[in-house]
Amino acid sequence: MEIKAVLLDLGNVVLGVDFRRVFKYWSEVSSTPLNIFHTHWSIDKPYESHEKGQIDFETYSHHLSTTFDITLTLDQWITGWNQLWTQPVMSTVNLLPRIAENYQLYALTNTNRIHADFFKREYCSELSNFNHLFISNEIGLRKPEPECFEFVCEYIDLQPSQVLFLDDTKMHVLAAQTLGILAQQVEKPQDGEQILNDFLEI
Fold first, then answer.
1. Environment class of 66 (CB within 10 Å of its CB; exposed 0-12, middle 13-18, buried 19+)
2. Residues 148, 137: one domain?
3. 8, 57, 128 from 161: Cα distances, Å
4. Does one domain contain both 143 and 190?
């Protein structure tokens, strides 16, 4: 079936992210060995709840304080949290105007309000070509939940087979493929440009 919509993950597909920057900042302001953050942090239940908008960042930061056995001010937690961002993936960003001329263009990202507020403010130009941003903490669903992809397809009123989806996480790609979405993994940020050129007439 003909592709009518392009759905892009944001992290490492459109906007560069690096969690090591977050841990480095928290390590420095707390005088805690860096390896503590690398070995103790995980995508656990509180992290998922935070991304689904079920708990706020202050609550999540309390969980982090216990996890890492450190005490930081809320401002320090937030400043470190927003160290995540590196640079936009310009090879992909530069294609977005052309894609938007020929296809419906959407983003689907697992993220939280603090990060969403940041990228909406700092990267408003890079994100300006998207028809809509589907953000997990706003819709209450996150990848790879099937309901997350079903919600998007219903919202944009297209069949899964009419959607091209790019994500850097294999689990998300496989979940989308199971539902019939044409999903491709972006293993390196620069891969996005090639995949989009391979599948689209732009």
1. exposed
2. yes
3. 15, 36, 25
4. yes
Q: Which pLDDT band holds residue 123 (cuts at 50, 70, 90)?
A: very high
Q: Which domain holds residue 26?
A: 19-85
Domain end call among 55, 85, 115: 85
Tell me the pLDDT tens digit for each residue of 40-51: 999 999 999 999
Tokens at residue 156, please? 């944009």
Neighbours of 32 (CB within 10 A): 16
| DSSP, residue by residue, 4-36 | -EEEE-SBTTTEEE-HHHHHHHHHHHHT--HHH
Given 85, 118, 143, the domain boundary residue is: 85
pLDDT in tens, 20-34: 999 999 999 999 999
Q: Quote the DSSP letter at residue 105.
A: E
Contacts of 175 (CB under 8 A, 6+ apart): 143, 144, 145, 146, 149
Do 95 and 194 fall within a single domain? yes
Q: What is the pLDDT of residues 90-99, one digit of tens each?
A: 999 999 999 9
* Domain co-membership, 98 together with 184: yes
The reported pLDDT for the residue numbered 201 is 85
First to last CA, the chain: 18
Judgement on whether residues 65 and 109 belong to the same structural domain of the protein: no
